Amino acid sequence: MQIVPTITEKSVNTKILCCSKSEKKIVKPFLKWAGGKSQLLHEIEKYYPFAHGNITKYAEPFVGGGAVLFDILNKYDLEKVYISDINEQLINTYRVVCDNINALVENLYIMQNEFLVLDVVGRKSYYMQKRERFNEFNVNGDKNAAIEKAALMIFLNKTCFNGLFRVNKKGLFNVPMGSYKNPLICDENNLRAVFKKLQEVTIVCGDYKESLDFIDNNTFVYIDPPYRPITDTASFTAYTKNFFNDEEQIKLAEFINKIDKKGAKILASNSDPKNFNVDDNFFDNIYGVYKIKRVEATRMINCNSKARGKIKELLISNF
After folding, report:
1. CB-CB contact of 256 with 266 (8 Å)
2. 3-state secondary structure of 129
3. Of 31, 92, 223, 295, which alpha carbon lies 20 to 30 A from 100's?
4. pLDDT tens-digit map of 135-165
5. What is the C-alpha separation between 90 and 99, in angstroms, rounded?
6. What's the pTM?
7. 122 Cβ neighbours under 8 A, 6+ residues apart
8. 268, 276, 266: which is closest to 312 by C-alpha?
9. What are the residue ranges of helices labelled H in the chain?
10. Beta partners for 293?
11. Residue 279 per-residue DSSP state
């Protein structure tokens, strides 16, 4: 299926319903993702506004690994769900899971069986071949290779260092291989469960601003953008080749003001600059009219092992 940075025909379907409550299968994110919110779900779920029945839609315009998305799909039967991300490789993978699950599983099993029988040297060579193939698609933009690209995305995610998705300024994936003994490259049961959950979800490759028309006063919106670096060395924002700097953070705050005026229930997350500079009021200033809660999280990715561990993150809400 062609990936386009605009809302597709599927995206504007007027009859979009989540999987019914009879779907008992619990799904989990099928990709490891830096900054994923699995560890903070116990805090985030406190903000779910679905209990009274007037909030019937959900939007997540920086979907990433989808920890919050899948938690909500596991717990609620909503009328409409919208997810998007500017990362074309990520959204292609979501679409292939949704539209071509059998072919995807077949491709993943082939790579899993080929990879696991190799020694360390053989695995590294195989990994580098797949990484090069993945980057060839990113450069050439082959629109007829969606399934292979998605399979490569999952393979690399399950075998690379820390499950990290990082690209350079040219948009090339540059993460080295990890040291996993027996990685589960094809988690077929979960992938097929995710396939069912995604059937009636609107999936868009594009900027967060494109969600504006979907969002109304019946919508809960969770916004999890690339985090603002909290130290000079903690500058990992390269999920895409587009840099999300302070100017972009301010533009996002302006977008949040717009959807707040539309009556949406909003929750946003970000780093807390006060972890390392108590005088840094950047988010306290741009989100001064909203409620800001500081919660404890665990930083998993840092080149300095001493910098990993418990830190504070921000949960920003308008209710």
Report:
1. yes
2. helix
3. 223
4. 999 888 777 899 999 999 999 999 999 888 9
5. 14
6. 0.87
7. none
8. 276
9. 41-44, 67-75, 88-99, 101-116, 120-140, 146-159, 188-198, 246-261, 282-286
10. 315
11. T
